[in-house]
Amino acid sequence: MAITINQQGTAGAKTNPKGLTNNLFNLNDPVKYTSLFDFIDEVNAPDVRANLVKTFGNQGITEFLQLTGAVKNAGTADEVTYWEEARLHQPQKAVVNGTTAAAATTLNLDGMKLAATDAGAQNEDDANALVARVGDILLVGGQDRFVVTAVGTSSEDAVTITAKSLLSGGLTTGLADDAAVTLPIVGNMFDQGTDQPSRFLQSNVVKRTNSYAIVKDLYEVSGSQATNIGYIDVGGGDYRWYIKSEKDTRQRFMDKRELTLLLGQKATNTAHSFDGTEGYFAALEDRGLVTSDIFGTNTGFEDIDAVIKEMDKNGCPPEYAMYVNTDQSLALDDMLSKGIATQVTAGLAGQFGAFGNSADMAVQLGFKSFTRGGYTFHKKTWKLLNDPTLMAADSAIATNLAAGVCIPLTTVADPKSGNRAPALEMNYKASNGYSREMEHWVTGGGVLGFTNDTKDTARFHYRSECNLVTRAANQHILIKGAS
């Protein structure tokens, strides 16, 4: 009896199936033999290089908060409340009541009378808070001194202030009716034998709050894929590709957490049920020093000098970390190449408290330092601002958000408690040994040994509840400019 063996794909053919008696040696005529590869090309092992090339270098961006000394603290409420000291000397802000001509010796002002229970009565943000008292000397127009002679109530909610010039010449420059004026209080004077002032000023602090943001991510691998071995060494001699994907997911999660702390905003859109959180850039936009020109692009030191003058007004500390994009970094290099500023990384005088008083340590960490106007700036290119998938994805980002920042390397005293805290503080929800700083857990239906689910997968979960407190934002500098 004849036996017919069908070869795959050729039904009824009376030929031997591939792999039994036929072989690859029949593919070429031996006369044309040039190499063994002509005969065994399907059994040669491919020459695969196991190393994974870091085409874009280290792509993680979680460096800013660590290197600037932002500390980690545990939080036990849905928001963090902190206090900032108000200005010790507050000017009188008011509007002129009636046109006041040059040489006038009497000045009439209207100011708002805030209720005694208003916690913001001495807050400098209240445009017309009543600060002046009888006997106070007001500096008008930057040169004329007027003494307050009367503070009267014009209505239930408003007061009038009357001031008389110390000199008979009166006002040097006239003031228009309803003109808004800011008058520094530069002292006071009283007649002999008079009583003490009838009012006193209560010290005030500014209450600030910031809610937490809950940041999450997830990675999943099936049981089948978890056992597959690939060509690429993903680290430590492990060739399972899901290990690489899980590491990348963790890095993206850490980056997104830091990005949330940097770029978060408090939510005002009622479409959201969460409160949002104030990020670093939002804090600087609201109450920091903001410059619209990157340093060094105009006439050398013009831009940075203008900011330094504002720093002096805000009592800024002498040492700063400057994180900038490439454009700002190059502009600073051009500025410094002119030799006007002192290059302290060359061994000259400067502040290095943040680096253990060591200029060498600053250099090792990638900082280039210089001094100007009594301030030491440690410059470093910020990877985040140069990433074309993030803060360099659009040329408008540097102009609208940031081309760089300057962070004071100092601690800030809490006016309520007297405790000292860093300028930047990362907070995470935690209590009784349970911390939500970096939660990581795995669920699975037997995959990789995790038996708390029925699905044939392992699910890697990541979660963090965090916020960032920017203390004394008026001492931080936000640099905007062309990218």
Describe the structure.
This protein is α+β, with helices and mostly antiparallel strands and 483 residues long. The protein has 2 domains: 52-86 and 204-483; 88-200. The chain is 17% helix and 29% strand. The chain has helices at residues 37-40, 64-67, 223-226, 241-263, 280-287, 302-313, 326-337, 359-364, 383-386, 396-400, and strands at 71-75, 79-85, 92-96, 106-112, 136-140, 144-153, 158-165, 180-183, 185-188, 205-211, 213-222, 289-291, 319-324, 342-343, 368-372, 375-381, 404-408, 411-413, 420-422, 424-431, 434-435, 439-444, 457-470, 477-479. A 7-stranded antiparallel sheet has the order 8-3-4-7-6-5-9, with no helix packed on it. Strands 12-24-17-13-16-15-14 form a 7-stranded mixed sheet, sandwiched between helices. The longest helix is centred in the middle third of the chain and has 23 residues, at 241-263.
Please give the share of residues in helix: 10-25%
Number of DSSP E strands:
24
Counting copies of identical and different chains, the oligomeric state is single chain
pLDDT average, as an integer? 82
Shape: elongated
Helices, by number, come to 10
N- to C-terminal distance: 85 Å
Q: Quick one: biggest sheet?
A: 7 strands, antiparallel
Question: What is Rg?
Answer: 35 Å
What structural class do the secondary elements suggest?
A: alpha+beta
Beta percentage is 25-35%
Number of domains: 2
> What is the strand arrangement across the widest sheet?
8-3-4-7-6-5-9
Low-confidence stretches: 114-125, 341-348
